């Protein structure tokens, strides 16, 4: 795991995610590798107790926390007050449609939204949702675009990033379509993706 993580880090991504949800096939355990500080380490949690998140932030040097479960605005606020410098990403699952009214209670308690495809698991399902839905995005908060993004989506991403609804899209989040097996990233595919999007 650490060798592959360091190979991914050598590609200089802006963010690198570590999943701290035990049922996941990508669950991260063991010692956190020494990653350059310019790569922001993101801890991914699903309805974890506050104490667990605080412990991982401290021991793993996380700069962002991704809330992938049913965390409430009050929980995000509590986390923010406990660690004021941490950046919080709140994940919302999208399928055929989405009620953007769900965002309003989180406006003051998180730093980013992440839109992922709704599936059987909280993330890593390998399917993209209809990005046209983001034409209705009502916020000015930056967001991550996720969900089944692979090399075959490059043309779609380029078109999307030139559209008005991409104004606040700050990060393209990739995962399962760049894996040879869960947790093992294909470095050649990631290199190609990065080069194509330059």
Automatic annotation (TrEMBL):
Keywords assigned by UniProt, alphabetized: Amino-acid biosynthesis, Aromatic amino acid biosynthesis, Isomerase, Tryptophan biosynthesis
Catalytic activity: N-(5-phospho-beta-D-ribosyl)anthranilate = 1-(2-carboxyphenylamino)-1-deoxy-D-ribulose 5-phosphate
Residue ranges constituting the N-(5'phosphoribosyl) anthranilate isomerase (PRAI) domain according to the UniProt record: 10-193
InterPro entries listed in its UniProt record: Aldolase_TIM, PRAI_dom, RibuloseP-bd_barrel, TrpF_fam
Listed pathway(s): Amino-acid biosynthesis; L-tryptophan biosynthesis; L-tryptophan from chorismate: step 3/5
Any one GO MF annotation of this record: phosphoribosylanthranilate isomerase activity
Keyword Disulfide bond (UniProt): no
GO terms of biological process kind: L-tryptophan biosynthetic process
Gene3D superfamilies xref list: Aldolase class I
SUPFAM superfamilies: Ribulose-phoshate binding barrel
Database matches in Pfam families: PRAI
Enzyme Commission code: 5.3.1.24
Annotated family: Belongs to the TrpF family.
Protein name: N-(5'-phosphoribosyl)anthranilate isomerase
Organism: Aggregatimonas sangjinii
Taxonomic lineage: Bacteria, Pseudomonadati, Bacteroidota, Flavobacteriia, Flavobacteriales
